[in-house]
Amino acid sequence: MDEARYLLLQLCDSGFPSGAFSHSFGFETYLHEGTITDASSFRRWLEAYFLKQWVYNDGFAVRLAYEALERGDPEAVWALDRRLTLQTVPREQRLAGIRMGRRMLELVQELLDGELLGRYRERIAGKKAFGQVPVLFALICVRCQVPLRDALRHTAYAAAVSLVQNGVRAIPLGQTDGQRLLFGLNPVMAEAAGIVETLPPEDFGISPPGLELASIRHERLDGRMFMS
């Protein structure tokens, strides 16, 4: 278990080269439009992202994949990979999820063995799966016997670290402001993880129109810093 904990810390570190540093997941649109201007307005966006979008999409996908693996149903996991990909409407965000998922899987296989990790990569190579970070995170956590609640909190933290660091660069914010912001998000991430644990299956894929449209508009921004 200690080895698994350290691996999760490594995956959540902002230095892990998954490609997350290249993606704003729509907040750059709000930055260009003047809605995000400082740490306070950025925090409001982060709260909306985690409590209105992440819980119903990436966070919920981790839980659904984890539960499918626990009951020995890998076919449900592969179906979830497809559904998560196809229900992501903004093209840039959809491609971001695939690129990050494939890159993370490539790196994780250098650190951790596992039959299902190998099968996932084979399915991606055979164009039978897309590759998604939440699915991969569930595969890793089940493989390492990490409890679901911890899996959800770690994946939320990994997303928060990347987004805050990208906000520090783009807004820009000082490093101290960034760390204060990240620390202040702890109760938000805990709340988001708790919500995920209670959701009924039919809630999977809910997405607030404002956040989704901002991600779509991002494609047409001038002078973009991020790929999504």
Automatic annotation (TrEMBL):
Instruction: State the UniProt keywords alphabetically.
Output: Chaperone, Cytoplasm, Nickel insertion
Q: Give the matching Gene3D superfamilies.
A: Urease accessory protein UreF
Q: Name one GO molecular function term.
A: nickel cation binding
Subunit-structure text: UreD, UreF and UreG form a complex that acts as a GTP-hydrolysis-dependent molecular chaperone, activating the urease apoprotein by helping to assemble the nickel containing metallocenter of UreC. The UreE protein probably delivers the nickel.
**Function of the protein:** Required for maturation of urease via the functional incorporation of the urease nickel metallocenter.
Q: Which family is this sequence assigned to?
A: Belongs to the UreF family.
Q: What is this protein called?
A: Urease accessory protein UreF
Organism of this sequence: Cohnella zeiphila
